[in-house]
Amino acid sequence: MKKIILGSVLLLSGLTLAGCGNHQAQSQSNAQSSSAKSTATSQKAKQAQGPWNQTKDQQLAAFINQWAPTMGQQYQRYDGKHEMKIATGYRYPSQLKQTTVNGSQTSIGWAPTGKGQYAYNVVALYNDDQGGNRHITYAFAFHDGQPVALVDQGTSGTPNWTPTKNADVANHFAQIAAGQSSQSTTAPTTGKSQQASTPANVTPDQIAVMIYSECYPDDDIAKESEFGTWSVNGNNFVGNGGSVTIVKYRIDGDNVYYSRKSGGEYGPEQVISVKELVSHQYSTPEQKQVIDATASSMTKSGEFDD
User: Fold this and answer.
1) 101 Cβ partners below 8 Å, 6+ apart?
2) For residues 201 and 196, what is the distance between their CA atoms, to the nearest angstrom?
3) Sign of torsion, CA 161 163 167 170?
4) Does residue 174 contact residue 223 with C-beta atoms inside 8 Å?
5) Which of 249, 302, 304 shows the shortest CA–CA distance to 134?
6) What is the reported pTM?
7) Can you tell me the distance from the alpha carbon of 193 to that of 168, in angstroms, rounded to the nearest whole number?
8) What pairs with residue 258 in β-bridges?
């Protein structure tokens, strides 16, 4: 009888231990399954978020607010709600689909996370109207997953975005997109950065006068009664009212691209930094007086068609 009871006890103990083992194994399996699901969900959420977020957007805004005054510019930022109207009458982001990139029709549209259905997914828009129909508009976008800072300054026709040649803007956007915000994003901290802001207070009109003087140093612009600027088919011109001494130019960030008219034809496009142009044409009190007086009194005509 004792043997039977002892055998029963041992059998029950074995069954209890087996049950505990199965329960522990099941718990471990459930935990591993839950962890795997959590990891997969986190990865999917991260992928859905895209390469741009609110923190990066704030860092870009901080950079633009610091950099723009050094260029004598003031930018309006698209707030994500109200359409941004630029000098030519276009409204963004709704009319981004009516623009081109690098001269070609391609899909471009608003995608605040940087991940969308477009070839160019725009995450930020900034515009500076400069009088008349002149403007500088930046569209910060992701193309094939890579950041690209696009700019448009056209005054008529279909807006055409091209990658900016402004290294500061392009590099800072790339750094912010990569999560590598630099100290200069918020404030200039070195002598070099502050020197770069030396030409900050010059206006587009002053730059137009200076680039003319750079191309025609022997022309006394103080005596030119018909001196002025105008635009034709999206191209900017500055001249003395005649058909000979004319400069075709465009301002892109801290660079000026220009062609001098010679023999009835415009030569190859050249480039000069605003800083260098200022050092040539706006460094002495006499130069400043002439440039300022001419810029304030010259005629500023609107857009003409050929």
Assistant:
1) 108, 119, 120, 150, 160, 161, 162
2) 12
3) positive
4) no
5) 302
6) 0.52
7) 11
8) 249, 270
- For the packed helices 285-297 and 204-215, what is the interaxial angle rounded to 10 degrees? 110
Q: Residue holding tokens 């696009």?
A: 150
Distance, in Å, from the CA atom of 31 to the CA atom of 27, rounded to the nearest integer, reads 6
Q: What are phi and psi of 228, to 5 degrees?
A: -175, 180
pLDDT per residue over 247-280, tens digit each? 999 998 889 999 988 667 888 888 999 999 998 8
Rounded to the nearest 5 degrees, what angle is found at the Cα of 45, between the Cα atoms of 42 and 47?
Answer: 110
Q: Which residue has the tokens 């160019």?
A: 120
Strand, coil or helix: what is 221? helix
Q: What is the DSSP letter of 240?
A: S
Beta bridge partner(s), residue 136: 128
Structure confidence by residue, pLDDT tens digits, 11-65: 555 555 555 555 555 656 565 655 555 555 555 555 457 999 999 999 999 999 9
